[in-house]
Predict the structure of D-lactate dehydrogenase (cytochrome).
Amino acid sequence: MAAVEAASVDKVGLELQAILGDRVSRSQSVRDHHGKDESWHHPIAPDIVVFPHSTEEVAAIVKICAEHGTPVIPFGAGTSLEGHVIADRGGVCIDLMQMDQVLAVNAEDLDCRVQPGVTRKQLNSYLRDMGLFFPIDPGANASIGGMTATRASGTNAVRYGTMRENVLALTVVLSDGRIIKTSRRARKSAAGYDLTRLFVGSEGTLGVITEITLRLYGIPESITSAVVSFPDLKSAVDSVISTIQMGIPIARIELLDKLQVQACNSYSGLGLAEQPTLFLEFHGTTAGAEEQAKLVGEISGEFGGSDFQWTGQLEERNKLWEARHNAAYAAQSLRPGCQLWATDVCVPISRLADCIMETQADLEGSYLQAPLVGHVGDGNFHLTLLIDPEKPEELEEANRINDRLVMRALAMEGTCTGEHGIGSGKMKFLQAEHGDAVAAMRTLKLAFDPQNIMNPGKIISL
Ligand SMILES: Cc1cc2nc3c(=O)[nH]c(=O)nc-3n(C[C@H](O)[C@H](O)[C@H](O)COP(=O)(O)OP(=O)(O)OC[C@H]3O[C@@H](n4cnc5c(N)ncnc54)[C@H](O)[C@@H]3O)c2cc1C
């Protein structure tokens, strides 16, 4: 599909202005801001950016775009990492961040309904006084719409699942402007095709999500965090595998390699031993959380873990997790001015040690720095390759490392991405991972979006 012609852009712009007034922008700075994510991927600005306030406005916008065959790119907080929001065919970017209302909280049913521009931090502030929380926690303060669209997860997924498990229903504007609801508030339903799961992870390629019904949880009586360091990476990973295989209901279990610990020490002032380290968290009753912490302390001791320190103090816990959430920026500070090529894979837990050790051996042969962190309780880990994208040789080297990482994970029955998604950056791996199923995905894409206007050039190549 070619980029949109200037005359058509002008026409679409005027029609959008008629319904949205000054919530339509063609200014260069606004467009530039909406043509990039937080990764190294080369930005490409959309032609027009719009800021709707309601599902009906989104429907009217999409209808106009459909009539002109103009690409539509939904946009949340812009924190994705695989070139998800790049407008490589121009078009209209729908910024959903002004749709930021919590519409309903049903405390007795442990669910809520929100607009897509609500961020995860905003939602948790809103819920705190009710004794409730929403656990999905990508490091960034992403929007709930973007998290739904990327099937995000994060540090808590080992206990609470990903967006896949925690979205109950959606309101979606389809590519012709029709509005549908995918499900109701019931915890279970066996009624028809599961469209909710189809749209979770669809990355804006099937429709625009305008309302999300989420599962909520009671804030646990006790939350305890711990840190433990290991003599080498393998011991740390083996201790994780053992913890998971014993069925301990751990809430967070995060691995940082030595380089990442060095980065966090200097960026977040942690003062940890510069060794492979696990950050952990336990949720439950006071006695339950303490018992979990003691058990995991014993397991890590068996694998050479030393100096197992745990705390229930809010301030200390916050410092630890703040440092974990800033791990990518800490990594970036190892090479000032660099950009991040953040890649993630996920493997069955029994293959995690092999996958991480082979990856580490591979990195030893490279001149690029690449700290390793991971939500390892799920078998999911990330490399943050620190690159200068203006240097083609560094891009090529990062590309080769990424290719080998993905192929290694696939050979171990894993996936090319546990949580960041496909965007444009990982499209080339979809066939290797899914084989003939990609043709079925293409059929679905065309059924929902026959003109290929919804975030074209992402996930599926047509
Ligand atoms: C420092 C850092 C750490 C991160 N850690 C994690 C992590 O631990 N786990 C994880 O899963 N991710 C992580 N990410 C990636 C990112 O935060 C997630 O992918 C997040 O879900 C993106 O949300 P967003 O609001 O920024 O979406 P955007 O980047 O704005 O959009 C992402 C995609 O969703 C689509 N989209 C957005 N809103 C809608 C909507 N309402 N309807 C339809 N489509 C829509 C867009 O078109 C795009 O394809 C991290 C990113 C950074 C920068």
Q: What stands out?
A: Residues 37-38, 73-81, 84-85, 96, 116, 138-140, 142-143, 145-147, 149-150, 152-154, 203-204, 208-209, 328, 419-420, 455, 458 surround flavin-adenine dinucleotide (CB under 6 Å).
